């Protein structure tokens, strides 16, 4: 789990997570706010989230392999290891909301689960940002600000 076609695997897999997880977050927010769209789009969103969640351990494993080649990425590795827990929490409440919707449950509990989907979505979005930001800083440091003449 180190390279693919001569390239480090980590940045390749990370980009899949960086695309799929925010798409899943936006989708989860939309279906939480628009119950009429849950039946049509909810399971698609859950599927995207499953793929993002499944790729996260691949990203962390490949990151550990890359770390052996290039050195410790600092806080990035720690934040990356935490990301899966945010994804799992979002996946659990999203699926719970979709199951309740499919069963026709319209109650305060169902609305509460939708609120939990919103909270878990925001938390996952913040965490994926933190992971990406720390990764960019680990790779690029201050080179972008130096190039801009600042």
Provide a descriptive summary of the structure in words:
This protein has a two-stranded antiparallel sheet with strand order 1-2. Helix 2 runs antiparallel to helix 3. It has one domain. With 150 residues, the chain is mainly α. It is built from five helices and two strands. It starts with a strand and ends with a helix. The model has no long low-confidence stretch (mean pLDDT 88). InterPro entries: DUF2231_TM (IPR019251). Keywords: Membrane, Transmembrane, Transmembrane helix. Pfam families: DUF2231 (PF09990). This is DUF2231 domain-containing protein.
The secondary structure category is: mainly alpha
Hey, roughly how much beta strand do the residues contain? under 5%
The 3D shape can be described as: elongated
Average pLDDT reading: 88
- Strands of the biggest beta sheet: in what spatial order? 1-2
Summary, kept brief:
83% of the residues lie in helices and 3% in strands. With 150 residues, the protein is mainly alpha-helical.
Structural topology:
Layout (H helix, E strand, L loop, with lengths): L2 E2 L2 E2 H25 L4 H33 L4 H28 L5 H33 L2 H5 L3
Helix pairs in contact: 1-2, 1-3, 1-4, 2-3, 3-4
Summary tags:
elongated; two-stranded antiparallel ribbon; mainly alpha; 2 strands; 150 residues; 3% strand
């Amino acid at each position: 789990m180190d390279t693919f076609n001569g390239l480090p695997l980590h940045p390749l897999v990370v980009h899949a997570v960086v695309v799929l997880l925010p798409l899943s977050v936006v989708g989860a927010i939309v279906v939480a706010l628009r119950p009429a769209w849950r039946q049509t789009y909810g399971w698609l969103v859950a599927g995207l989230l499953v793929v993002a969640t499944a790729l996260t351990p691949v990203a962390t494993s490949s990151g550990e392999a890359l770390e052996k080649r290039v050195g410790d990425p600092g806080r990035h590795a720690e934040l990356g290891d935490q990301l899966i827990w945010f994804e799992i929490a979002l996946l659990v409440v999203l699926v719970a909301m979709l199951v309740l919707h499919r069963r026709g449950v319209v109650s305060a509990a169902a609305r509460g689960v939708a609120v939990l989907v919103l909270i878990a979505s925001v938390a996952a979005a913040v965490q994926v940002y933190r992971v990406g930001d720390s990764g960019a800083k680990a790779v690029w440091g201050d080179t972008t600000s130096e190039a801009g003449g600042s």
